[in-house]
Amino acid sequence: MPSDENLIRAIRRNPFLLTCELETYVIPGIRILRESGAGESSIVRLLLFHPRTLMTSRSQLSQAIERVKKMGVDPRLTQFSVAVQTIRGVSKGTWDSKIDAYRKWGWSNKLILKAFTKSPWCMAMSVKKLMANMDYYVNKMGFDPLVIAARPILLAFSLDKRIMPRDAVLCVLLSKGLIESRASVQALAITNEGFQKKFLDPYKEQAPELLQLFQEKLRTC
After folding, report:
1. Is-contact 120 154, C-beta < 8 A?
2. Number of other CB atoms surrounding residue 9 within 10 Å
3. Which Pfam families match (predicted)?
4. Where are the domains of the chain?
5. In terms of Cα–Cα distance, which of 93, 159, 104, 98 is closest to 123?
């Protein structure tokens, strides 16, 4: 059984759990995950955000788990739960359409699989969103598509709430000759606090408008 605290959190997020028999519909899924070697963080994540995955039939859940493990996703890591949920929630037709979308950017099947094992979110998003994100990274910011394949976590970031506000800052820095390129993995991957320390604070004199610009972009997204 999950801890009382996590169970309460799950019920608050998913009130329908109050109407189902946990011992019949949820606990068996948790047992299967534990037997597969899944870490508690993966189990808790599914319980909180995707409890219906745990309510899948035992055979279907076991098949999804085995498929994810064969792909090379470590059961001990949190992304294991994302991978299982994605495999269960994405139809074959939709999966294939996402594969085709990444191929348009020069990703091989091997690269796509490797990206999925690193960051399963890249196959959880819609084709429309992944194409929009890839277009912005490659055609606006100047990233090599293969760099994104190597750091697929970038695709999980919100274009409006994270990438575009930071890119606005990078554009100003580039125009003033203070950086050499907008295509910076570090600039996008670090926390907001880290971004401010690395890309805002050092340029207060050369570009005093940056902090206000960044804050305005965050507010309007």
Report:
1. no
2. 15
3. mTERF
4. 4-89, 92-156, 159-220
5. 98
pTM of structure: 0.83
Q: What are phi and psi of 74, to 5 degrees?
A: -70, 120
What value does the CA radius of gyration of the chain take, rounded to a whole number of Å? Answer: 20
What mean pLDDT is reported for the chain?
90
* pLDDT tens-digit map of 25-79: 788 888 999 999 998 888 888 888 888 888 888 899 999 999 999 999 999 998 9
